[in-house]
Specification:
By secondary structure, the chain is of the alpha+beta class. Helix content is 26%, strand content 25%. The longest helix has 15 residues, at 326-340. The structure holds flavin-adenine dinucleotide (FAD).
Length: 444
């Protein structure tokens, strides 16, 4: 047990936390027992303060065993600290793929459940929790409870998207999806403005995966211009313009590493606007076979890319806006961002399908926009302007990305917060499970 400086992926805030790293499920139970305030931590890929507790932050990374797999149904049971990257390395070559994956594979299954993560297939398949059949939860009252849609259903739904506040997920059971190759069929569309991008999503509803990179610094007629990618897992007999799917599995690509914290001036508005314009111009519309890693995890090719933003860290602002009024809200968000020349090149737009099944799940029918901002002194005032737009249209912010929203916006935008608090109180009357996030947003 050691006290170390910990942060999320955005490197803001940084807190001195007592880190517990138990090696087995039995050790997790024993170590958690003695703590009056603690939170579970997976691989630290939430951007803000969700996996931070100064008194005790309990790493689940050693809880990574596979417990059962049925090769007929694809139902897998594994400990919660299993990394998605390990699951992929083992199962993708054997024809199985996670039902939902975020944009990085360096997350744990427990972290995916606790944030109820969404992927590029949300419009078709919903978020991660929809595919979880059950899990075992170590609660604050010391009880271990089995949870599923039938067993402790209220606790099941509070834990999905509950950011670790209902207890520690020890292991979980989920259903993987069948794939026939490690390749994707990808089609690229260039959209001249936001309306074309939204029309592109509407025209891509029958595709399993769709996502758009959006130029958040383009102004005037070009505001909201985007490159939209849609994709399907390539069948073993897939062809594209007469070409068969590659016979060999994709070669592992070398990863690049950002060696040092870059100085702040590297990411100035002019450089970013130039990068974005180039990215848009160079996107080649049309179809291609592309490997799974490049399609789902382009950023994983650059190790420690969060250092690009320098020592001060960065904030990701991810909101969802409802379908009705969503277009105008997106235009307003882009207008504020481009006027301030403040957003960066990593802006992503996705269409969401149904509401998530967790009490604090982020998704709702609409559009989600994610923007990265270097953590400068001025940025907080700008983000408050964005908050006003999101609140006015009935949208909300994603807890897994957040490091700064206020408790009022949280309360007003997550309508099940009181029910969530009631469930937490029942299984953790002494409020032992807490994090910097839960304290900032009064989640307990
Ligand atoms: C490059 C990048 C791309 C991303 N893309 C997406 C995306 O497309 N879609 C999306 O939804 N998210 C995305 N994310 C966010 C990420 O998927 C979530 O933050 C996820 O929760 C991180 O998992 P983790 O294992 O690192 O958990 P951590 O960051 O360590 O913890 C996150 C939360 O999970 C809780 N938790 C972790 N393990 C357990 C457990 N065993 N029991 C109970 N609670 C637990 C923690 O308490 C904390 O509240 C992205 C993040 C990055 C860095």
């Amino acid at each position: 047990m050691t006290e170390i400086s910990l942060s999320g992926w955005g490197r803001l805030p940084v807190a001195a936390c007592r880190l517990l790293v138990p090696g087995t499920a039995a050790a997790v139970i024993a170590e958690a027992k003695g703590e009056t305030s603690l939170i579970a931590r997976g691989n630290g890929r939430a951007y803000g303060d969700a996996a931070l507790n100064r008194a005790a932050t309990l790493s689940t990374l050693k809880l990574d065993r596979l417990l059962a797999f049925d090769p007929i149904s694809g139902v897998l049971t594994a400990e919660a600290g299993l990394l998605l990257s390990d699951l992929l390395a083992l199962f993708a070559p054997r024809g199985w793929f996670p039902p939902v994956t975020p944009g990085t594979r360096f997350v744990t299954l427990g972290g995916m459940l606790a944030a109820d993560v969404h992927g590029k297939n949300h419009h078709r398949d919903g978020s991660f929790g929809e595919h979880v059949l059950g899990f075992e939860l170590l609660c604050g009252d010391g009880e271990r409870r089995r949870c599923s849609p039938r067993e402790n259903p209220e606790l099941f739904h509070a834990t999905i998207g509950g950011m670790g506040l209902t207890g520690i997920v020890m292991n979980l059971t989920l259903r993987l999806r069948r794939i026939e190759s490690s390749w994707m069929v990808q089609e690229t569309l260039r959209c001249r403005d936001l309306d074309e991008a939204l029309a592109g999503f509407a025209a891509s509803e029958s595709w399993t995966y769709s996502v758009a990179w959006i130029d958040c610094l383009a102004r005037g007629r070009d505001r909201g211009r985007a490159v939209l990618y849609r994709g399907e897992h390539a069948g073993r007999d897939a062809t594209l313009e007469g070409q068969a799917v590659p016979a060999a599995p994709p070669r592992r690509k070398p990863t690049l590493r950002v060696p040092v914290d870059l100085p702040g001036w590297v990411l100035n508005g002019t450089a970013m606007a130039a990068f974005n314009a180039l990215y848009y111009q160079r996107a080649r519309p049309g179809g291609a076979f592309i490997d799974i890693e490049t399609f789902f995890y382009p950023l994983d090719a650059i190790t420690a890319w969060n250092r690009i933003y320098g020592r001060r860290g960065f904030l990701q602002y991810q909101c969802v806006v409802p379908l009705e009024g969503g277009r105008d809200a997106l235009l307003a968000l882009l207008e504020i961002t481009s006027r301030a020349r403040a957003g960066s090149f990593l802006a992503v737009l996705k269409q969401f399908g149904a509401r998530g099944s967790g009490l604090l799940s982020f998704p709702m029918p609409g559009y989600t926009l994610a923007l990265d901002f270097p953590a400068t002194a001025e940025i907080f005032a700008l983000l408050q302007q964005l908050d006003l737009v999101v609140a006015a249209c009935g949208g909300r912010l994603y807890l897994a990305k957040d490091a700064r929203m206020g408790a009022d916006l949280m309360r007003d935008s997550y309508s099940n917060l009181d029910r969530f608090r009631d469930v937490c109180r029942e299984v953790d009357p002494d409020q032992r499970f807490r994090s910097l996030l839960s304290e900032r947003l009064h989640l307990r």
